[in-house]
Fold this protein.
Amino acid sequence: MLERMVLSTIQFLREDVLVHAGLGEDCAVIDFGDQVCLVTSDPITGASEGVGELAVHVACNDLAANGGTPVGVQIVLLMPEQSKEEQIHQIMQDIQKAAASLEVEVIGGHTEITSRVASPVVSITAIGRAPKDRYITSQGARPGDDILITKGVGIEATAILARDFGDQLPFEVTGEEIAGFTKQLSVVPEGLLAAEHGVHAMHDITEGGLVGAVRELCQAAGVGAEIYEADVPVPYLTRVICEFFGLDPLRLLSSGSMLIVTPKGAELIDKLSEIGISAFIVGKVTEGSHPAVIHTTGEREEITAHVEDELWRFFRREEGAE
């Protein structure tokens, strides 16, 4: 539907735009001489708390997936009519804190109180830069490459579920445990190191989780892939929350984890370890046009259609229950 209704309408292309709008690409890349400018936009609509922090990290993670250093963010903040000043102030404080932690400036945007929204909507446009000879796209994956992910799957979704739906869990999740996940939301350090290491492709793992991100990367590069379920790191809290709510962690919103494709997986794991970031080989790029998940049972599941994120499925289920 995205291809048919949105991307197909884009007809005029400029020569100085090096990476155009397309499935599987995190950013537009614009030629600025010796350097390129990277631009991306992302909204946060699935969280009720911590939306400012999430919004900054999700947008800047897209820049990192293209090997870019974030420079500035513009904020579009749409608030419902019943909003209080303290709520708006808190969101902006969270945005400023997250941006400052990445040495990123809030360079403008738009703030509006409107009857058109029922809950806060935060949309961020992030701008970054990279050397012209070192930016990364999703199109570079090649058969035989290792597929790595950093940290583990479900990082962002775990924080959202524990914070917004913790009262439904049969066990207590502490604020300290939640903070442990939100502190991992940025993939800027690993993105910049990986770009210097000469990787073939990167992609931020967001909607659709690991399976969705690999499918998008395969679409962009025209390749296939195999993901080995047994090798995918799932944090303990993520696992027990998924088991309780009946969710698949491999298809769960995973901002905070970077998907990296490189011919030298073991070498990159060692490099990332030197800066305190864990990474794991979870699959291989193959010939073909779509990925497959090799389950722990040995069953092979071909992924040929859009991957719905488990968090959105959970939200729909909750709304139906209400």
Observations:
- The CA atoms of residues 210 and 250 lie 5 Å apart.
